[in-house]
Each structure stands twice: as structure tokens, then as C-alpha cells.
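Q: Given only this backbone (237 positions), what sequence would you predict?
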């Protein structure tokens, strides 16, 4: 766990203005490092909470400028009640939400400390959004999907970014969307890596949910994610 008081990190809650209005979120980056690649962390359907903020700090500790947009910031921010947050997120307009996340990618490309390279990493609801960003932003450098509903296979030709895909073996609802997506990725010669974690279910990376957390799957997927992002955003410079 990386605490908010870690002196090796610079942490803030920036706001930025887009044509759709003011957006806000949680930002962390390594202290004293001038240029780092950036990662947009896309939260689950419970919003920007302590678990997601902890993930932002973990990515920053690995050498990335990390930012999690609060998708509910136009509605006043994520409420403390998770059921209320789920209801609000389920009522978001998909096009407006996607526009806000595309604006967040642009924000990260120009934020102080960023070298202009940016990837998206989404979890659950955010995993689906991460896939949508890979389709709609041709300049995205990489995308990671953690157990998110797969994009429309017909849109796969629009994907330019390399993908890293994590799924839990016991996550039947999400996994039923995977085969056609995988088939389309293969047919169109897209660069991707897919991993199915044995014994793991949905939200296996969420250590705040002991009913779902799978330590082995979380650790292995984290290693793969950091290696993938390092290869795509740092080693490939």
C-alpha cells in the first residue's frame, strides 16, 4: 500500500475546464522527476474512492504520472454511499462520459511532468471505458482492460493502441463478451495480450472487497500491467 503522505510522490486534486464543463480528479506523480509517461486510471462503478486513489499512488510509485478522473465530478463528485454512486454512474450519458475521458487524456498529455505519452487503465465499468477510448482516440499509446465488458467487435478496426486484457476465470457475465472480441482482434491483426486468471472472479484486483479480491491474480496482473506500460510508454521511446 502506498500512503498519501509518501514524500516520494506529489499528490493533488486538480480541476480543468472542458467545453462540457469543469472536471476534477486525483493526481499523483513521482517527486523530482521532470518527464514521465502518463496513465489515466478509470474507476469502477463505485466512483473515485479510497481504493482507486491508492491505485493512482501505486502507479505513480512505479514512475508514471497517474490521474483518475471522477466521472461524477459534473454531478458534484462521488458520494460516500456506494449504492448512490452506482445509481449515478448508471445514469451517465455514454457520449458525454466518453467525451470527458477523452478530455482527460488530452489533459494528461499536457500536464506538467508528462512526456506526452498516455495509456488508459480501466477496472470493471472503467474497463469498458478503457476499451472505448482505444476505439475513439487514435493517439492513445496503450490500453489496459481489467474485467470490463468488451467493445463492439465491429469497431475493432478502429483500434490503434496495443491492448492488455485481464479477466477472471469465474466472471461469466463479462467473459461471454470476450470470444467475439478476441476473434476480431486476431482477424484484424491487432496487437494484444489476453490473460484469464484461474480461480478469480469479477473485480479480483479490488483489495477493498475481500469477497472478490484474489491476491494471486491481483499480483500477477499488476506485474504484467507495469511491464506492458513500461514497454509501451518508456522502453519504446
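A: Predicted residues:
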Amino acid at each position: 500500500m502506498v500512503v498519501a503522505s509518501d514524500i516520494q510522490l506529489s499528490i493533488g486534486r486538480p480541476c480543468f475546464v472542458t467545453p462540457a464543463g469543469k472536471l476534477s480528479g486525483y493526481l499523483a506523480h513521482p517527486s523530482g522527476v521532470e518527464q514521465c509517461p502518463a496513465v489515466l486510471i478509470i474507476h469502477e462503478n463505485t466512483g473515485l474512492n479510497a481504493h482507486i486513489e491508492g491505485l493512482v499512488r501505486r502507479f505513480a510509485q512505479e514512475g508514471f504520472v497517474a490521474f483518475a478522473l471522477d466521472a461524477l465530478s459534473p454531478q458534484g463528485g462521488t458520494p460516500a454511499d456506494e449504492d448512490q454512486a452506482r445509481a449515478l454512474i448508471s445514469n451517465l450519458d455514454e457520449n458525454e462520459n466518453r467525451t470527458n475521458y477523452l478530455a482527460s487524456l488530452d489533459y494528461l498529455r499536457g500536464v506538467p511532468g508528462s512526456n506526452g505519452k498516455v495509456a488508459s487503465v480501466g477496472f470493471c465499468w472503467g474497463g469498458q471505458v478503457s476499451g472505448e477510448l482505444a476505439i475513439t482516440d487514435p493517439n492513445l499509446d496503450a490500453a489496459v482492460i481489467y474485467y470490463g465488458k468488451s467493445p463492439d467487435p465491429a469497431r475493432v478496426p478502429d483500434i490503434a493502441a496495443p491492448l492488455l486484457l485481464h479477466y477472471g476465470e469465474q466472471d461469466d457475465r463479462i467473459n461471454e463478451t470476450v470470444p467475439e472480441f478476441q476473434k476480431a482482434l486476431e482477424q484484424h491483426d491487432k496487437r494484444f495480450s489476453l490473460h484469464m486468471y484461474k480461480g478469480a472472479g469479477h473485480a479480483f484486483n479490488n483489495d477493498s472487497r475481500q469477497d472478490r479480491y484474489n491476491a494471486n491474480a491481483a499480483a500477477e496482473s499488476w506485474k504484467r500491467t507495469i511491464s506492458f506500460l513500461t514497454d509501451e510508454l518508456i522502453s519504446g521511446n
